[in-house]
Amino acid sequence: MSLLTGLEHSLIAGDEYQGKKRFSVLNPANAEQIAYVSQVDEQGVKLALNSALTTFDALKQTSAAQRSEVLQRWFELVIEHKAVLARLLTQEQGKPLKEAMGEVDYAAGFIQWYGEQAKRNYGEIIPANDQQHQLRIVKQGVGVVLGITPWNFPLAMITRKVAPAYAAGCSFILKPSEQTPLSAIALAKLALEAGMQKGAFQVLLTSDSAALIKPLCENPDIRKLTFTGSTKVGATLLSQCAGTIKRTSMELGGNAPFIFFESANIDNAITGLMAAKFRNAGQTCVAANRILIQQSIEQTVLAHLVEAVAQLVVGDGLSEGVDIGPLITVEAKQKAQKLVAEAVEQGAKIVYQGEELDGSFMAPMILTGVTPQMQIAQQEIFAPVVSVMSFSDESQALHIANDVKEGLAAYFYSQDVSQIHRVSMSLEYGMVGINEGMVSNPVAPFGGVKQSGLGREGAHQGLDEYLDIKYLCQKFD
């Protein structure tokens, strides 16, 4: 099977499905068309749903060990095709090839973990009140799952949903981003080659997401929705699922603080910030969005930070030595530029800016004098812009950090053991990096609090999201 052929069509019931309408997939580095993709139609959606329902019934008859073997083989195939997948990812998403290679490993890690975790779907025996009863708990797959994934991590956002769903015995219908559909089809083809049933992982391609998703959210045959994207869209999807009381997992927007306390190891903290801020050109939901620096060390940190940021190379992700690729669209760049311009008008200062580039490339910059009231501090920047605030003490830092509606990830650097305990317990976030700028890991639960979402992905908690609990009460004569 050639991995790079047949990526232009939806994958339904194990076969390519060609719709009549088409849309273009563009390389964000040069705006050139890399594919002309067919859009699924209503008939295709019905076919996919019927196949998913039939396959779910069949999956009930499989063992955890059988599903584990399929996932392990899928993992091996993804690693085997690592170079091809990474290059495809860079072409349609833009991130540097070295980052794309890292994403392939990250994506494969979820498959490997849930291949193992499938065999650990333990139930419970509850001590009964008498000798005539046995009380048991078993866990069963929730049913047909609808997944919606974004463009910023087009491989990893898929595997961390599909792998646990399959491990639990669920069938999965995926709607990937219209900007990065090719990676999704490639992953699904490898899953089929690994032995996954034809209706277990299907991919529907469309540029009209609302028209496709709303009827499926309202369809009672879909038993669960899993979504990664903006808080605004997540709220809309929740309302659409409410009528059928559907299970949902929501990984929504972030507004991560990154705090430099005066006891921090500054060199280590700068290294952590560079990873937390500039990975994927700042286009991650856990990107450091608000940089909080204690006043006593602010000038020292800024000097180190300017030096580090000045070393970053912006360019086509397929070119050697590139650290930052393009933003996903020119419109994304314009949105970030507007946030910067508004902040400057309100008193912020640009203390560093790289050479401006054309198209959707955005040079990294550093802003100081940012205040919590500015929009750049209230919204995800999703661009290589370092937005710096200062604070006087721990109490003020925590107030600024927590005074937003999001609660996905937070980071802080300190060498004061007591402070580490206080701050880690006080930050209102689902994930906290302590002297670490990279928190994502397949074996750890990923997710947020407040308006950053519902549920968790990764770890054993990620498997539970696709399982129903059944209590069995048996009486003996």
TrEMBL record:
A single BP term in Gene Ontology: gamma-aminobutyric acid catabolic process
Active-site residues from the entry: 251
Record Pfam families: Aldedh
InterPro entries xref list: Ald_DH/histidinol_DH, Ald_DH_C, Ald_DH_CS_CYS, Ald_DH_CS_GLU, Ald_DH_N, Aldehyde_DH_dom, Aldehyde_DH_Superfamily
Domain Aldehyde dehydrogenase: residue ranges: 21-471
Superkingdom of the source species: Bacteria
Molecular function terms from GO: succinate-semialdehyde dehydrogenase (NAD+) activity
Keyword terms, alphabetized: Oxidoreductase
UniProt-listed SUPFAM superfamilies: ALDH-like
Family statement: Belongs to the aldehyde dehydrogenase family.
Protein name: NAD-dependent succinate-semialdehyde dehydrogenase
Species this protein is from: Pseudoalteromonas caenipelagi
Organism ancestry: Bacteria, Pseudomonadati, Pseudomonadota, Gammaproteobacteria, Alteromonadales
